[in-house]
Every structure is written in structure tokens, then in C-alpha cells.
């Protein structure tokens, strides 16, 4: 390997008093050579983003500050630099790509202005030269029609294009070091693959070093030369990507890798043809078509067009697709949180969409939801036991009995009975999702509709929650309508999947068949975009470690 | 993708049409409310005369149309209003329109100066406080803001009057210009300005504190956003961060407040104009209530409703100008 561009030795970042641990990072050492992509992997709270903050010298000082170690950048000690000297380096010799392409760009400035800003700050060139350079950069990141993108505001271009703009901005001065902090996490899987390819392509051309921060081992498998695994601020393992991915040594690394959902779908259940519990026929939903007398017409968006499916007892049906495919709309229609324009939803033979409000209230008992964000979907002012008991109480169960049952449900979702009297904020993300599941189960539903229930969770927690859902489904003979954007997750849990694109089901069938032999080009594209699809994790199952 | 040209004309026309029922409803509501209050113009006139016999009062009522049922009176008033006829002020013995136009200028002058001062200074101080959060500067600014916020404007007015006019003799006690001063040109401007110092200060300090507090909170929020971090990572310095990335985004909620507050400033001017005997709409409103000068009062309310509608429209235009994400439809 060539000489290191970035060399971090024994880096220690102190947290303010009263935090859960004294140091966010404790003795981190790593180096990035030119032309090398080093992945810093860890779960939330591991300190990976703070590492980036320390290198950029953008920590929220003085509450969080570097308290020991050194950061050498091309032979200079970054920690000894003045703020003015750092300003010359930022965006110029070290640049950063952030996670959220929507929020990381100033909504009030055009794309061109924002790329131009880097050039203005670090380059002596005329306006015309700068503009030419910015347009060239937009072209290099493969944005169609650079001149019109140059004049567009961030909200006028898509998420993937915004991330391309971010990259154009970061690479416009050919920095020696690029820090990419979860640059593809917020993107759809097909866009993610394109962006990963783009980062690798540009980095090869310029010979820059990349410090790539991620929580996703699939992404690591796709892009890394070297891997550093971080847990609670400490490096547990580091080495060449090949070795860490295929022969992990540390138990924590093994757990993480074991938690990555396998791309092999479950073995199809023996055909017994259980009864249909939930069925939908010809669902249609269009948004924004209304136009009042004075309020002008808006362009209508068809979220769901002519959608039908059947869900059998004890079965999991996955609804997969990218953002905007209409999968969340489907989940809201079948629970009648949203009214369809057309079509019928039958639960045990009774049309849910034709129910009167009174009948509907009784019917809701049988179909319950688990939401994506367990923090936002639990009332923060209520104790867990009341959150769970609320549904049954509304449906006429005496409060005492409902609470008693709530405590039993907590046991069922593997939480301690002591959890009952605490508030949602006292739990971790995974525990909160367990509470959300217990809440849904409290009404003894026939069907559970889960909308991205694990996408906000760390990978190891995600595996546990998926396992729990599968267990409960089998034990209680539940039917699951499982909405997800993550094909790995779908592969692990779903018996059948339907792939949605632009409001339509393009392909449906047993998960194993769809994965092994996709028929529709869109499905093929989705499957081939899964990061790290060529890598088979060497350890399997949660208890592998 | 080029920005489409905002179809501003059709937007303005639609807003105009939408505001007509609003104004009509305001006028009907006010008319009925005023009728609920005991006493009418005739009572006030007769009271001023020191009493009159019942037949005279009866004749006076018939002459002014006050003997008709409320609905008839309302209908007649609205019909006249439709052609911008505000009627006759029996107190000023002039058409209401003349009385209003006489006063409108002074009120608008007072409001415009007060609001622009409050806005500019409030926004600047709020931004400074936020960038030095929890420092001595921030504490001083925030505490001052709190004091202004908590001080009623009538109290502030009287205290200023006591200190600057009575004790120090620096500023005139009231009015809009020196009586029998007959200044012209710049002397006239200066004279009016001297008369406006205290009313403006009294009216603007309280609003200044609103803007200050909102701007401080808004800047603190925006400064934490991802795109500000992006700008830092590009190597932008403090001034650039502030003026190019934080200010414009932080201003949006403050502009909303500015539009909303225009109407309350109109209300606030009643107190301030009355104390400083400033011949504006506020003072006129106060006198009209006391003298049961219905037509004048209705005229003032009509004018205020129109002003508020216009200001809200301008605020929306300004908002669309400031926030590139908003397109007028």
C-alpha cells in the first residue's frame, strides 16, 4: 500500500459529564491510504460519526471534544491547526458526503450556487471558469442535463440526484480524503448501488482515500478495501475487507455479520391451503386530484392502481418496492386509515371498506398495525401497560383485566414484567418496537399489518425483532402483511411477496420463486441492486456467535 | 428544470375575490356587535347638548334612520358601503371618508416606522444572541427582550413622557407637529420625526421583543440543521454561514409573525395614539366609541380590515420570494 493520507492514533473523544460513558471514542487507531476505501462499521452510538467530526474538526465543542491521540493528515497534525487553517482544508483537501441528501443541501439556494460556493471559497477563478467547472462536475456524477440541474433548487430534483450533487460538491476540488457518512442509507436500493459505483469510480480516477461510514454489511461487501469494526467507541476488529467479512474473529463482528438477513428465502411451507383471511380486490387510490372552485388544479398522483391480493391464515405476504411505489398506501387502505377511491377489502368475508363507522370500530380489532418508528408511534406520556391495555379497554374489556393481560403480553414479546410501569423513552429502539408489537397483539387480531417495522433498527436488533415476529406468527396463527423496502428482510420472513412499482404489482409469487427466477425486469433490477449480494455471510443465525 | 414563472396575476385576483366575503362578514359582525352596545349617536349628541325633549329625540332618530329595525339599518349600510360610501359623521360634521383620510397618513407613518424598527433591530439582536448563545451578550439581550415584552406600552409611554418631555424637555409631549410652527421642507420632516420618537419607541419595543425571541429560537434551530453542517464542511466561515445559510431560512417564521402582527399593531396604536394625542386612526377609534359615532367607527374597521387583508397578501408574496420551495398557485 502507498503512504497513508489519514493516520489516526489512539483517538479519544470525551463526552460531557452524565453521559452513558465517559468517552465516545476510546483509543481509535486507523489509517487510510490513497486510493483506498476504509469502511468504519458500527451500530448506532458506536461513535462512527464522531470520528468524522473529529477529523473535520467539527465536533460540537466544548461539550464533545478530542481529549487525546493524534490525527495526521498528509503528515500534518490536524489537531494543532487553527480554525482558519482548518477552513482552508475543509471542502478543499478533505471533503465530506452526508447521509440525508434532502436536508444536507440548503433549500433556498440553487444547486449551482452550492457547488459554486466550494469553488469560490478555495479557488481563484473567474465566475465563468467556476461555472464551467461546476457543470463539468455535474456531468462527471452523471446528472442528465447539467445546465438545468445547475439552476434547479434541491427540492426540484430527486433524492438520488441530490446525492449526486452532494458528491459533485465534495469532489469538485479533487480532495485527498473523502469522508462519506452513511451516504446511501436514505436512498432506494437501485439508487444506492449507482451511488456506490459512482463513489468508487470517481475515487479511483482521483486516487483519493475514502473513509466510508456505514452500518450496513451489504454496503461494506460492495465497496470496502479495509474494514474497521467499532463498538461503543472501541475498535473490536480491523483488517482487509475479505478477511473481516469472510472470517470474522471477534464475537461482536460475528454477531453483526450473523444478523445480516440471508438472501435465501425460507423453504415454502407445505401446501395445505389455509383459508383466506384478508383479501383486496381492485384497489385504487389517487392523491391530490381535488380542485376547488378557486384553488386551481393540482397534478394527480396515482398511488395505487388496480391492486388485488389474498392473504391466507398463518402466512406472511411481503409488499416490497422503492419509495413512491405505493406500498405504504396499500397498508393504510387495508387498515382503513385511508379511504380507497375504488375496490374492496374483505376481512373474513366482510367488506371493510363498506363498513359503517360503528361496524368499523368493531372490525378494527381484527386488523392491527405495527409502525415504522416505535418512538413516534407510542404516546410518550403513557406508561407501557396503559399503552398496551388501551385498545382492549376501548373495546369493552374491564381495565383491570386488560392491564393484567398487557403484562402477560410483555412476557410474550420477551420484555421483563417490570417494563410495564415505565415510559416509552426509557427503552431502546428494539424494545420499543417490541412494545409496539405487544400493543398490536393486545386485541388478538387475525391480521397484523407491519409497515417497515425494522427499518429504524440496528441490524442485530432487527434480526431479533424479525425472529420474534416469525415466532408469534406461528404460535398465534397470525397473518402478516409486511411492508418493506429491504429485500433481505423480505427474504427472511415472507412466504410470498408482491413487488410494487408506481402503484402496480409487477410481480407476485412465493418468495423463493421470485428470488430465484424473477420474471419482471424491475424485479431483476431490484434483486441485482442489493448491496453485497455476491457475498454470503459465513456465519448464520443469531446464536452463531 | 427551470423555475416556472409564478402566475402571480391570477393568484392576486383569486386572493382578492377570496377576501371579499371575509371583509363583508367582518362588517356585518361589527355592525351587529356595535348595535348590541347600549346607546347610539343620538344619545351621545343629546347628552352633549345637556338633554332634549322626547319629541326632538324621536325626530333626530327618524332623520338618522335609527328608528328602523337593525336589519334594515344593516342592509342600508352595506348597500352604501358597496359603493365605498361610508356615510356622514355626525360628530365631525364631515363625510366619514374625509375624516378617515385626514388621519390615515399619521397612523400608517407610525405603524410603518414602528414595525420596521422593531423588525430590523429585533431580528439583528435575535441573531446575535443566538450565535453567542448563553454568553453575557445573549443574557443581556434576552433579559432586555423580556423586560420590553413585559412592560405595557401605556406605562412605557407615560414614563418616557415624564422623563424626556417633562423632566428633560427634549421631546414634545404629544401631537404630530408643532402647533403654529408652520415649518416647511426638511424642518417639517424633522418636526414630525421629533414628535414620532416616543410613540414609535413605545409601540416598537414590545414588538421588537417578539421578533428578538422568535429570531433567536429560529437561528438556534437552523444553525443545527444538516445543510449548515454541510456549509461548514465546505470551509465556510462564520459570516458566510450566517448570511448565506442561516439568516434566510431562519427569517421565514419571523416573516409570518410580521404579517400576523400587523393587525395587533393597529390595535396597539389606539393606546399609544391616545396617550400621545397623535391624530391618527387609533385615537379616532377611541373617540368614536366614546361618542357613539357609528359611521366613523365602521369606517375605521373597514379600513383596518382592508389593510390587514392587503398586508397578509403581501406577506404571502414575500414568503414565496424568500422560500424557493413555495410556488404561488
UniProtKB/TrEMBL annotation, chain A:
<comment type="similarity">
    <text>Belongs to the ABC transporter superfamily.</text>
</comment>
<dbReference type="InterPro" id="IPR050388">
    <property type="entry name" value="ABC_Ni/Peptide_Import"/>
</dbReference>
<dbReference type="InterPro" id="IPR013563">
    <property type="entry name" value="Oligopep_ABC_C"/>
</dbReference>
<keyword id="KW-0067">ATP-binding</keyword>
<dbReference type="InterPro" id="IPR003439">
    <property type="entry name" value="ABC_transporter-like_ATP-bd"/>
</dbReference>
<dbReference type="InterPro" id="IPR003593">
    <property type="entry name" value="AAA+_ATPase"/>
</dbReference>
<dbReference type="Pfam" id="PF00005">
    <property type="entry name" value="ABC_tran"/>
</dbReference>
<dbReference type="Pfam" id="PF08352">
    <property type="entry name" value="oligo_HPY"/>
</dbReference>
<dbReference type="InterPro" id="IPR017871">
    <property type="entry name" value="ABC_transporter-like_CS"/>
</dbReference>
<keyword id="KW-0813">Transport</keyword>
<dbReference type="GO" id="GO:0055085">
    <property type="term" value="P:transmembrane transport"/>
</dbReference>
<dbReference type="GO" id="GO:0005886">
    <property type="term" value="C:plasma membrane"/>
</dbReference>
<keyword id="KW-0472">Membrane</keyword>
<keyword id="KW-0547">Nucleotide-binding</keyword>
<feature type="domain" description="ABC transporter">
    <location>
        <begin position="6"/>
        <end position="257"/>
    </location>
</feature>
<dbReference type="GO" id="GO:0015833">
    <property type="term" value="P:peptide transport"/>
</dbReference>
<dbReference type="InterPro" id="IPR027417">
    <property type="entry name" value="P-loop_NTPase"/>
</dbReference>
<dbReference type="GO" id="GO:0016887">
    <property type="term" value="F:ATP hydrolysis activity"/>
</dbReference>
<protein>
    <submittedName>
        <fullName>Peptide/nickel transport system ATP-binding protein</fullName>
    </submittedName>
</protein>
<feature type="domain" description="ABC transporter">
    <location>
        <begin position="278"/>
        <end position="527"/>
    </location>
</feature>
<dbReference type="GO" id="GO:0005524">
    <property type="term" value="F:ATP binding"/>
</dbReference>
<keyword id="KW-1003">Cell membrane</keyword>
TrEMBL record, chain B:
<dbReference type="InterPro" id="IPR035906">
    <property type="entry name" value="MetI-like_sf"/>
</dbReference>
<keyword id="KW-0472">Membrane</keyword>
<feature type="domain" description="ABC transmembrane type-1">
    <location>
        <begin position="104"/>
        <end position="319"/>
    </location>
</feature>
<dbReference type="InterPro" id="IPR000515">
    <property type="entry name" value="MetI-like"/>
</dbReference>
<comment type="similarity">
    <text>Belongs to the binding-protein-dependent transport system permease family.</text>
</comment>
<feature type="transmembrane region" description="Helical">
    <location>
        <begin position="108"/>
        <end position="128"/>
    </location>
</feature>
<protein>
    <submittedName>
        <fullName>Peptide/nickel transport system permease protein</fullName>
    </submittedName>
</protein>
<dbReference type="GO" id="GO:0055085">
    <property type="term" value="P:transmembrane transport"/>
</dbReference>
<feature type="transmembrane region" description="Helical">
    <location>
        <begin position="296"/>
        <end position="319"/>
    </location>
</feature>
<dbReference type="InterPro" id="IPR045621">
    <property type="entry name" value="BPD_transp_1_N"/>
</dbReference>
<feature type="transmembrane region" description="Helical">
    <location>
        <begin position="140"/>
        <end position="164"/>
    </location>
</feature>
<dbReference type="Pfam" id="PF00528">
    <property type="entry name" value="BPD_transp_1"/>
</dbReference>
<dbReference type="GO" id="GO:0005886">
    <property type="term" value="C:plasma membrane"/>
</dbReference>
<keyword id="KW-0812">Transmembrane</keyword>
<feature type="transmembrane region" description="Helical">
    <location>
        <begin position="192"/>
        <end position="212"/>
    </location>
</feature>
<keyword id="KW-1003">Cell membrane</keyword>
<keyword id="KW-0813">Transport</keyword>
<keyword id="KW-1133">Transmembrane helix</keyword>
<feature type="transmembrane region" description="Helical">
    <location>
        <begin position="12"/>
        <end position="34"/>
    </location>
</feature>
<feature type="transmembrane region" description="Helical">
    <location>
        <begin position="250"/>
        <end position="276"/>
    </location>
</feature>
<dbReference type="Pfam" id="PF19300">
    <property type="entry name" value="BPD_transp_1_N"/>
</dbReference>
Amino acid at each position: 500500500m502507498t503512504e497513508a493520507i489519514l493516520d489516526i492514533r489512539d483517538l479519544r473523544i470525551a463526552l460531557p459529564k452524565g453521559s452513558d460513558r465517559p468517552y465516545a471514542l476510546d483509543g481509535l487507531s486507523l489509517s487510510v491510504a490513497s486510493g483506498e476505501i476504509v469502511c468504519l462499521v458500527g451500530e448506532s452510538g458506536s461513535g462512527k460519526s464522531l470520528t468524522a467530526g473529529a477529523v473535520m474538526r467539527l465536533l460540537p465543542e466544548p461539550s464533545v471534544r478530542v481529549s487525546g491521540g493524534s490525527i495526521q493528515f498528509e503528515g500534518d497534525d490536524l489537531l494543532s491547526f487553527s480554525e482558519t487553517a482548518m477552513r482552508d482544508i475543509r471542502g478543499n483537501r478533505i471533503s465530506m458526503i452526508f447521509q440525508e441528501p434532502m436536508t444536507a443541501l440548503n433549500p433556498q439556494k440553487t444547486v449551482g450556487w452550492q457547488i459554486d460556493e466550494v469553488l469560490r471559497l478555495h479557488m481563484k477563478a473567474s465566475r465563468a471558469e467556476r461555472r464551467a467547472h461546476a457543470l463539468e462536475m455535474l456531468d462527471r456524477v452523471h446528472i442528465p442535463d447539467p445546465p438545468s440541474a445547475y439552476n434547479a433548487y434541491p427540492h426540484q430534483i430527486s433524492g438520488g440526484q441530490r446525492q449526486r450533487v452532494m458528491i459533485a460538491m465534495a469532489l469538485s476540488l479533487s480532495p485527498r480524503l473523502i469522508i462519506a457518512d452513511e451516504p446511501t442509507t436514505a436512498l432506494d436500493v437501485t439508487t444506492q448501488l449507482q451511488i456506490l459505483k459512482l463513489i468508487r469510480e470517481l475515487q479511483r480516477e482521483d486516487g483519493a482515500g475514502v473513509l466510508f461510514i456505514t452500518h450496513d454489511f451489504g454496503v461494506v461487501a460492495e465497496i470496502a478495501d479495509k474494514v474497521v469494526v467499532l463498538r461503543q467507541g472501541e475498535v473490536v476488529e480491523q483488517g482487509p475487507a475479505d478477511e473481516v467479512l469472510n472470517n470474522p474473529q471477534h464475537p461482536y463482528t460475528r454477531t453483526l455479520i450473523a444478523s445480516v438477513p440471508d438472501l435465501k428465502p425460507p423453504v415454502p411451507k407445505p401446501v395445505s391451503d389455509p383459508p383466506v383471511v384478508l383479501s383486496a380486490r381492485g384497489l385504487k387510490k389517487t392523491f391530490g386530484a381535488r380542485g376547488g372552485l378557486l384553488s386551481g388544479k393540482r397534478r394527480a398522483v396515482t398511488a395505487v392502481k388496480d391492486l388485488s391480493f389474498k392473504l391466507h391464515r398463518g402466512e406472511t405476504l411481503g409488499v416490497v418496492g422503492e419509495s413512491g411505489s405505493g406500498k405504504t398506501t396499500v397498508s393504510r387502505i387495508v387498515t382503513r386509515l385511508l379511504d380507497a377511491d375504488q375496490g374492496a377489502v374483505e376481512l373474513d368475508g366482510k367488506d371493510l371498506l363498506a363498513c359503517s363507522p360503528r361496524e368499523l370500530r368493531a372490525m378494527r380489532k381484527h386488523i392491527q398495525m405495527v409502525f415504522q418508528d416505535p418512538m413516534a408511534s407510542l404516546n410518550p406520556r403513557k406508561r407501557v401497560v396503559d399503552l398496551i391495555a388501551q385498545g382492549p379497554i376501548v373495546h369493552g374489556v374491564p381495565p383491570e383485566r386488560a392491564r393484567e393481560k398487557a403484562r402477560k403480553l410483555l412476557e410474550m414479546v420477551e420484555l421483563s414484567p417490570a417494563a410495564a410501569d415505565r415510559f416509552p423513552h426509557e427503552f431502546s429502539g428494539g424494545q420499543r418496537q417490541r412494545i409496539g408489537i405487544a400493543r398490536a397483539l393486545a386485541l388478538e387480531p387475525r391480521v397484523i399489518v407491519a409497515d417497515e417495522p425494522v427499518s429504524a433498527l440496528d441490524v442485530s436488533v432487527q434480526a431479533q425483532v424479525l425472529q420474534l415476529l416469525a415466532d408469534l406468527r406461528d404460535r398465534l396463527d397470525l397473518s402478516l402483511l409486511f411492508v418493506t423496502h429491504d429485500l433481505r428482510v423480505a427474504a427472511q420472513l415472507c412466504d410470498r411477496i408482491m413487488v410494487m412499482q408506481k402503484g402496480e404489482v409487477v410481480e407476485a409469487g412465493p418468495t423463493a420463486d421470485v428470488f430465484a427466477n424473477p420474471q419482471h425486469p424491475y424485479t431483476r433490477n431490484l434483486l441485482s441492486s442489493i448491496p453485497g449480494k455476491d457475498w454470503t455471510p459465513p456465519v448464520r443465525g443469531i446464536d452463531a456467535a | 428544470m427551470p423555475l416556472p414563472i409564478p402566475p402571480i396575476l391570477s393568484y392576486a385576483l383569486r386572493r382578492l375575490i377570496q377576501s371579499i366575503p371575509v371583509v363583508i362578514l367582518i362588517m356585518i359582525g361589527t355592525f351587529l356587535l356595535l348595535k348590541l352596545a347600549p346607546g347610539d349617536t343620538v344619545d351621545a349628541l343629546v347628552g352633549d347638548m345637556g338633554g332634549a325633549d322626547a319629541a326632538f329625540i324621536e325626530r333626530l332618530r327618524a332623520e338618522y334612520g335609527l328608528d328602523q329595525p337593525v336589519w334594515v339599518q344593516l342592509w342600508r349600510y352595506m348597500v352604501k358601503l358597496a359603493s365605498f360610501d361610508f356615510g356622514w359623521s355626525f360628530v365631525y360634521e364631515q363625510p366619514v371618508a374625509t375624516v378617515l383620510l385626514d388621519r390615515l397618513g399619521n397612523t400608517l407613518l407610525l405603524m410603518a416606522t414602528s414595525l420596521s424598527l422593531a423588525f430590523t433591530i429585533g431580528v439583528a439582536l435575535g441573531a446575535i444572541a443566538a450565535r453567542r448563545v448563553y454568553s453575557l451578550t445573549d443574557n443581556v439581550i434576552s433579559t432586555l427582550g423580556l423586560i420590553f415584552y413585559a412592560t405595557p406600552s401605556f406605562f412605557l409611554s407615560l414614563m418616557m413622557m415624564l422623563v424626556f418631555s417633562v423632566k428633560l424637555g427634549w421631546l414634545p409631549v404629544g401631537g404630530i407637529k408643532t402647533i403654529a410652527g408652520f415649518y416647511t421642507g426638511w424642518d417639517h420632516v424633522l418636526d414630525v420625526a421629533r414628535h414620532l420618537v416616543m410613540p414609535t419607541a413605545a409601540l416598537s419595543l414590545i414588538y421588537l421583543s417578539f421578533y428578538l425571541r422568535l429570531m433567536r429560537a429560529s437561528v438556534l434551530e437552523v444553525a443545527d440543521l444538516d445543510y449548515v453542517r454541510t456549509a461548514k464542511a465546505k470551509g465556510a466561515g462564520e459570516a458566510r454561514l450566517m448570511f448565506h445559510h442561516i439568516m434566510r431560512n431562519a427569517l421565514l417564521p419571523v416573516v409570518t409573525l410580521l404579517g400576523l402582527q400587523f393587525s395587533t399593531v393597529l390595535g396597539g396604536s389606539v393606546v399609544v395614539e391616545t396617550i400621545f394625542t397623535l391624530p391618527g386612526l387609533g385615537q379616532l377609534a377611541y373617540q368614536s366609541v366614546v361618542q357613539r359615532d357609528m359611521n366613523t367607527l365602521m369606517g375605521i374597521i373597514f379600513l383596518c380590515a382592508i389593510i390587514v387583508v392587503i398586508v397578509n397578501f403581501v406577506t404571502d408574496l414575500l414568503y414565496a420570494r424568500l422560500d424557493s420551495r413555495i410556488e404561488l398557485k
